[in-house]
Amino acid sequence: MVLVFRNGSGRLVVIIFSIVVVLFVIHQLIPMEDFSFSGELSESLEIIKRCAHNNREILDPSAGMVVAGVPDIIHQIWRTTDVRTYSTELEASHDLWKITFNPINYTVKIWTDEDVLQLLEAKYTWLVSTYKGYPQNIQRADLARLVVVHAEGGIYADLDVYPRDATQIQCLRHLGLQAIFAPTAGTLGLSNHFFMAERESSFLQWALYEAKRRGGAESPRVLLPYLQVFWTTGPMMVTAAFREYAWLYSTQRQKLGLLDERYGRAVIQHAAGRSWHGSDGKVLNYMADHAQKAVLMGLFILFTLFSLVYVVRKRCYKYRGLFAYRV
């Protein structure tokens, strides 16, 4: 068999390959636009840089305060009730949340896969097929956290999120906001590793509708697995849902809050060591919290590919002529 590549046809192949690579990268980076609205955040929700209620009174169970809003429940999710299987590198934060908040009459719950499915089948039947249809466990976990907080209200924290300031977390519950989210890096969007909300929050309901929509026919257009997770159920989806929600109810006060990035680090610690898929979990967390860096990394890879193409073209030009490989 003889394979023949002339200089002209070789350059044509390189050009076609370059165009395909560029189109693919652009196509896959389109979902990143969900993060590109930092200027609009402060206009549509409250950026929380501090919480200065009477913290001593809030933390005193004997004060007899009855405050509507975010319930005193902390939700966490794992496959089973044995959180020791969570990670070989990190200690799950569940016990720390219990040690910190049980003394002030909080309920700290672990939802297992079975618990979540039972809740879906009982109250969210319209989401069951979407939940079961996800190809990755992390997508089910992302959807589950929205469901359980919508159903019962309270605080959600990943097992790699650790409380740093119980007083501030208590204070946030009493700000009168229907939902508060941790930020992505640079306060560019809403992250879902830590958030709190009222029971049956209208925004969480909207986010569930958006997750349902993205879990349908549109989802396959995102081919990169990590990006697909963020776009279908993760921070990109939550941020996009907020944009739609804010636009729809633009004439009303949203009562939604976003922790300032610096303040958020004083309230909680996010170790970003999730182990739903071992090392995949770390990559997912890092990309979710560093969206800008992820884009820059993609551009760097694109630059490297173009450099490689340039070198190949130069070599083809230098050794132009007929190249034949006989088998």
Automatic annotation (TrEMBL):
GO biological process: mannosyl-inositol phosphorylceramide biosynthetic process
SUPFAM superfamilies the record matches: Nucleotide-diphospho-sugar transferases
Pfam families: Gly_transf_sug
GO molecular function: mannosyltransferase activity
Membrane-traversing stretches: 12-30, 294-312
Cellular component annotations (GO), alphabetically ordered: membrane
Keyword list, A-Z: Membrane, Transferase, Transmembrane, Transmembrane helix
Family stated for the protein in its record: Belongs to the glycosyltransferase 32 family.
Protein name per UniProt: Uncharacterized protein
Organism in which the protein naturally occurs: Penicillium cinerascens
